Every structure is written in structure tokens, then in C-alpha cells.
Amino acid sequence: MTLLEAAGALRARRVSAVELATDSLARIQALEPRLNSFITVTGDAAMARARQADRELAAGSPAGPLHGIPIALKDLFATRGVRTTCGSRVYWDFVPHYSAAVVERLEAAGAVLMGKLNMHEMAYGITSANPHFGPVRNPWDTARSPGGSSGGSGAAVAAETLFAAMGSDTGGSIRIPASFCGVVGLKPTYGRVSRYGVMPLAYSLDHMGPLARTVRDAAAVLQAIAGHDRRDDTSSRRPVDSYIPEEGCSIRGLSIGVPENYYFERLDPDVKTAVETAIQLAGRLGAAIKPVRLPDVDALNTVARLILAAEASALAEPILARRDQFGADVLALFDQGRLLAATDYVNAQRLRRRLRGEFGRVWKTVDCLLVPTTPAPAPRIGETTTTLGGVEEDVRLAATRLVRSFNALGYPALSIPCGIGRSGLPVGLQLVAAPFREALLLRAGAALEDGGLRIPRCPLAS
Amino acid sequence: MTDFKAVARARGLDIPEAELDRIVPTLEKLEAAFRPLAADLPPSLEPATGICPLEEDGAE
Fold first, then answer.
1. Can you name the residues that pair with A116 across neighbouring β-strands?
2. Is A173 a catalytic site residue?
3. For A250-266, what is each residue's pLDDT tens digit?
4. What is the interface pTM, i.e. ipTM, of the complex?
5. In chain A, where are the structural domains located?
6. What angle do CA A351, A356, A357 make, to 5 degrees?
7. Contact state of A338 with B13 under an 8 Å Cβ cutoff
């Protein structure tokens, strides 16, 4: 059952919010020993909220699609009265007295918040092998990483302990776990979803968005959380579109750009095959497939890495004296950022503006881009290098090389499952559009899903 | 190429020598990739500060 199907069943009184929450908690209890996707389960509060949702439904209160739906949050969204660790020893006992804007909006929409999800420490990495709370495991193969940093979000949605989860994405941290776990992940446009109350990693690169089972489910979550928030200086005042694609929506006539450069280089053969098959499907569904040549993606990735390193270390400086409280990989990244020159950071931001202008020209020729999300399926837990196209790469740099640039550009990007590789692991593709064109991306994604771009349920969920 | 170990010492950062040995090669690679890109930026090119909403930043 999808989120929207559950919402329909709730409104028709075929199921109650209490039943959905009870089922969610039972699945969490059964699967957590294998997944470790949660840091905190707020079972009592969730049941109380579910009972309230049922009373509201019985009273005929207006109910949106999230009303009574079990959802959880990556553990960097501040939750009033509930521990918020950021996956870190430093924030082990941090209990905020406020909630993030996203949390407020989800609660206002009637969502039943089930708890806080495990993640890569400080959201600074892609494996979610958390040294303090234990590694999150991929439900498709528990010896493998779910990706990260929103690894608990991806694993829980794939295992169907939740209908949707919130993640954050600074260099791919929603889309990578979506790809590795075979779920949908949406990084909205920078400024579309408030960052207020979310522990920052890098101010100018952080984005908040949902992971869900289907594109329409992700759209339903975005509908609830998008919009201006005066507490976030980067929050856009642009009106919120209608995001949930209609049944029977089409991509006929949509112009989809397929890059000739960069994105299809050094791919795992299973990824290449799955994404190319999806491109053919888009063509059969009536989209115009156009080859495009993009500006220097490698340069943009370099710029984004430098900005991330500088901003993250500036933020962490006050806590870096507690060296023994950080995992080795995260500490190394923070130390790197402390050694960068201020002039390099400023020049990286200047280059970012130039490249943003160059990339923006692609929207004069196509409506969206279709590219792989990650160059390979999920790595094994503990794997530090991978070989693609005969080149050995750091696992983190490989996993981020097709996603990171869209953080620097601020473009909306939607990862959807597009196949299962020979290893039995899911493969994801990424649709990318101009700023604030989430509705177009979601329509394209839903049309592809309706047209057959779906993968089987994760065996652990079945 | 920047002497990152000297920078760490000059700034009095408490980064152990072994850790420096581990991170300096990554920094050198990043610097080698970045510096040529930034070599010819015109003075009129201002930073994308990221503190204003994207639509006000002339990105579209």
C-alpha cells in the first residue's frame, strides 16, 4: 500500500490511523534488529497522535493526504522534547525546545511521527556506518550500505516500516540512499523547503526533502512541507505549486535532455543498462529525447566539495576540540576544511555563480535532464574503494559524483528506482529541472512509474 | 602547492601529525583541481553567497 492509498483508505474508514501506527511499530520492532534504521522510536507519542487523528477523521475534520500517516524524520530535524542527535556523540543528550519548520508542517498536516532515523554522523558522509549508533543496513542486502547520509530514511522506507521519511541533502544525501534502497527521493529547489530547525552541514548547499515509495507519495509530502518561512533567510516567497500528479499524467511532448558528456562515463554496466532502458521507455511514452552537452561538471563538483568543506568546518569549529567524540572519517573531513584558504572559498563561490549561469542555458533547449543517480549500486558496509571503468575511486567520491553538482546549482532533482541489477540491488535514475519546477519533475516521474518504471518490493518488506 | 602541515602548525590547530599525513594528499588533490579553475576570474564576477532565495540570485 502506498501513502496515497493509505490516505484514501483512512478517509473511507477502511483502516484507522491507530491500525496504521500499530502496524508500523510492529514492523519496526520486527525489522530493526536487522536494519538499525532508527535512533529513537516515539511509539507512545505516535499512538497518541494516531488516536487524535482518528478522532479528527470521525469528526469530519478536513484531512489532507498525510493525515494519520506514519512518517519519521532523519535525526537532524529538531523535535521539541525529543532527543535530536544528528547521529553524533556531541549531541547525544540534545533535546530541543523547538521543532524544525518541516516538523511543524508535517504535524499540522496530521502526520503521525514515529521517531528519529539513523544517519551518517553529522550528515557528513554517504555510508551511514554510524560509529555511535551502529551502521544502518540496506534492506535489500544487510551486508550492504543503504547510502547516506539519510541512510535510515532510505532503509526504513524500503523496508516499509514507514510510508515516507524526511531526509536532508547537501551533496546527494537524499538521492544516494534513494538509489541504493530502491525508493523515491526528492531534493527540492534551494529555498523551496525551510531549513529552520535543521542542524546545518553547509548553509549554502543544504536541502530538505522526502523519501517515499512512489513519486506521488513524495509529491504529497512536498505539498505539506513546501512554502515560505520567515525564519529561514533563504526561504523563497514564490507560491507553492500543485505537486501531486494526476492519474494518467503524461510526458508526451516533454523535452528530456540526456547528457553526452560526464554522466554516462564510468558506470557499472547494470546502471548503464537500467538507465538507458528508462530513456527508451520515456521515448515510447512520447517524450522527445535530446542529446545535450553540459558545462564542466567536474569543475562544479570540485567547487561544491570546496564550499562544503569550508562551510562544514566553519560550523563545526566550536565543537572540534572534542576530537574523541567524532568518528575518524568525519573528523578527517572537518580537519580538511579547517586548512582551506578563505580566498579559495570566496573564489569557489564566484565560480559557482559563473557555472550556474552556464548550466542555466540548458533549460532553453530541454525541460529536464535524465541521468543516473549513482554510478553503481550499494557498496558493501566497510568498503572504501570501488573500481568503475577500470578506475579505482573512493566510495564517497564515486557515490556523489553524479549528484553533488545539483546542490551547488540548487536545482530540484528527483531520484526514482529504474531497475534491479544482476547483484539483486536496485538502481536509480535522476530527473533534474530548472529551479522551482518540482511539479514538472514529479509529473515526469509519475508518468514513468505509470508507464512501467517500477521495481519489485524489497524482499525484506514482502 | 600549499604546505598544509605548516598551515596547521601556524594556526595552532590540534590536528595530530598522523591525521595530517592522512588528509594532506586529499587536500593537495582538491587544491590542484581547484586553483586552475579560479585562475582567470574577472573582478566583476561576484560570489554566489547563497543567502538569498535562488530566484533573486539571477539563476533562472
1. A40, A73
2. yes
3. 999 999 999 999 999 99
4. 0.91
5. 3-291+367-450
6. 100
7. yes
Cα end-to-end span (Å), chain A: 11
**Each residue's pLDDT tens digit, A321-375:** 999 999 999 999 999 999 999 999 999 999 999 999 999 999 999 999 999 999 9
Nearest to A350 among B30, B45, B52 (CB): B45
CB atoms within 10 A of CB A269: 12
Does the distance separating the beta carbons of B19 and A354 come in below 8 Å?
no
The identity of residue B44, as a single letter, is S
Q: Which residues of B touch A409 (CB under 8 A)?
A: 59
Residue A304 pLDDT > 70, yes or no?
A: yes
Candidates A323, A332, A436; nearest CB to B55:
A436
- Hey, what CATH class is A3-291+367-450 in? alpha beta
Least Cα distance to A381 among A84, A199, A126 occurs for A126
The model's pTM: 0.97
CA dist A8 and B11 (Å) reads 60
Q: Which pLDDT band, with edges at 50, 70 and 90, does B54 fall under?
A: low
A281 half-sphere exposure, CB direction, 13 A CA radius: 22
List alpha helices for A247-341, DSSP H. 269-284, 297-316, 328-338
3-state helix, strand, coil in chain A (%, to 5): 40, 20, 45
Which DSSP category does A456 fall into? P
Taking phi first (over 0 means left), then psi (-120 to 50 degrees means alpha), and beta for anything else, what does residue A381 get? beta
- b/e per residue, A369-398, with b = 16+ CB within 10 A? bbbbbbbbbbbebeeeebebeeeebebbeb
The SS3 of residue A169 is: strand
